[in-house]
């Protein structure tokens, strides 16, 4: 292990996976690793357990790069894009924790939404919306001004993502079965997802702890399938999700006075893997009412690319270095070295 430390440690740590890469100043990827995170509700993003998993992923990436993970720091600059970095107090707490660990000589903590944003645009500004387990949005103006939302759930005015869609699907399925609500395909497709016949069996399974609540997130594709088939209840949920995405993006643009510009609006997260065309059409139309020149698109690169580019931006790296990082830091490269 003769390789000296890297210039940049890029981290994208969400609730379902942690991606890490070590890069040279010229954008060369020295090492990378992906760690799958399980039990979101038990671990919790931004908690000690979650951060220790980040350390595990960093160590795996260091080994992949031929860097001794016990010889700290492993990189000069660390860009940590972390789910759980929602409030300024979170940023300070996470920065202190990382500082004590000494993984990198200089630590920069950002919410993981900023990684999605930077990964989806060639410019250092724009709007990023994440919709996976939950939902979040961040914006950066051309002059560097930043806006973001607390995004800590219902108490901060949020709705959306797999957890909320899944819970809503169960709610409507239960009410369709017992007569309090309208008929819906979800009354059969929701229990079928769990290998059951009736919504009440799902209720009892969750209530008595026989079903893992983490599985609720997996109901989101079931909702989209029902909406595509024309189910009115599911269609209403999909439309609500589209409206939430659009209102976060347009609110961020208004705050940053970007509605007359041509910002990239980058959509990242598992919910955007759906092929439901009307979902994206509704988002696109709603955003263009407010910002006619906005460019709305779904992120295809891994978000850790954005963390790497944020690091290269900070070092003043040329476009060639950024292009090299984007070209080489792929899903396949990350999956080739799975940690944990």
CATH fold description of the largest domain = Nucleotidyltransferase, domain 5
Rg, nearest Å = 21 Å
Number of strands: 11
User: How would you write the strand order of the largest sheet?
Assistant: 5-4-1-2-3-11
What is the rounded distance between the termini?
Answer: 21 Å
The overall pLDDT, averaged over residues, is: 94
What does the model show?
The mean pLDDT is 94. With 340 residues, this protein is an alpha/beta fold. The radius of gyration is 21 Å and the shape is globular. Helix content is 44%, strand content 19%. It is built from 13 helices and eleven strands. β9, α10 and β10 form a beta-alpha-beta unit. The strands form two sheets. Strands 5-4-1-2-3-11 form a six-stranded mixed sheet, with helices on both faces. A five-stranded mixed sheet has the order 8-7-6-9-10, sandwiched between helices. The longest helix has 24 residues. It has three domains: 153 residues, ATPase, nucleotide binding domain (Nucleotidyltransferase, domain 5), CATH 3.30.420; 86 residues; 69 residues, no CATH class.
Annotation keywords:
11 strands, five-stranded mixed β-sheet, 340 residues, globular, 44% helix, Nucleotidyltransferase, domain 5, 3 domains
Short description:
With 340 residues, the chain is of the alpha/beta class. It contains 13 helices and eleven strands. It has helices at 40-43, 48-65, 88-101, 112-119, 162-178, 186-193, 199-207, 220-228, 232-255, 277-290, 304-314, 319-328, 331-335; strands at residues 6-13, 17-23, 29-36, 75-82, 104-111, 126-131, 135-140, 146-148, 264-268, 295-298, 338-339.
